[in-house]
Amino acid sequence: MQDDIATLRRILRTCRTIAVVGLSADWFRPSYFAASYLQGKGYRIVPVNPKYPEILGQKSYARLEDIPFPVDMVDVFRKPADLPPIAASAVAIGAKCLWQQLGVANAEADAIARAAGLDSVMDRCVKIEHARLFGGLHWVGVNTGVISAKRPH
Question: Given 28, 38, 95, 122, which residue has the most CB atoms within 10 angstroms?
Fold first, then answer.
C-alpha cells in the first residue's frame, strides 16, 4: 500500500480525471460528498454507476471500459469483494491509480494494480486526504476559527 505523504501528494497532484465507481446521485451519500468536493477543487469527476444517466452534471457510465477518454484514477466506493475485477478494469483502461475508499480494502485488487505499475491506495478517503494535504478541512466546518488556541481579547 502506498500511503506515505509524498506519494499521496503526488497522486492527488497528477491524477486530475477521476472515475468514481459506485458514485451515488444521493447528496447525502459519502461518495457524492467526496466527488462533489473534488469537483469543486477542479478535478474532472467521471461517474461510474449503471443506475444513473448523470451525476453531478456529468454523464454516468455503466463500466470503466465504457469511458471514451483517459482516466487517471479509479476511486472505488464498492464492497471489498467487488474490487478484483474493478482493479483489472482500471489496469485495462490505463489508469495510473487505484484508490480504495475508506472502509474498502482488498489485498488482491491492490496486488493486481501494483503488478501492473499502478499506484494503489487502500482504506483512505480521497476527500479527507486532499483536505489534509492541501488544506480544505474547513470545507466541512473543521477549521471554522470558532475554536482557537488564541486567548480572546
Answer: 95
User: Would you give per-residue pLDDT tens digits along the chain (153 residues)?
Assistant: 456 899 999 999 999 999 999 999 999 999 999 999 999 999 999 999 999 999 999 999 999 999 999 999 999 999 999 999 999 999 999 999 999 999 999 999 999 999 999 999 999 999 999 998 988 655 454 444 444 445 555
User: Measured on CA atoms in the order 70, 76, 77, 82, is the torsion positive or negative?
Assistant: positive
- Name which of 106, 59, 98, 114 is nearest 81 in CA terms: 106
Decide the pairing of beta strands 54-55 and 58-59.
Answer: antiparallel
Q: What is the spatial distance between Cα 153 and Cα 150, in angstroms, rounded to a whole number? A: 9
Secondary structure of the chain in the HEC alphabet?
A: CCCCHHHHHHHHHHCCEEEEECCCCCCCCHHHHHHHHHHHCCCEEEEECCCCCEECCEECECCHHHCCCCCCEEEECCCHHHHHHHHHHHHHCCCCEEEECCCCCCHHHHHHHHHCCCEEECCCCHHHHHHHHHCCHHHHCCCCCCCCCCCCC
- Apex CA 46: angle with CA 43 and CA 49, to 5°? 145
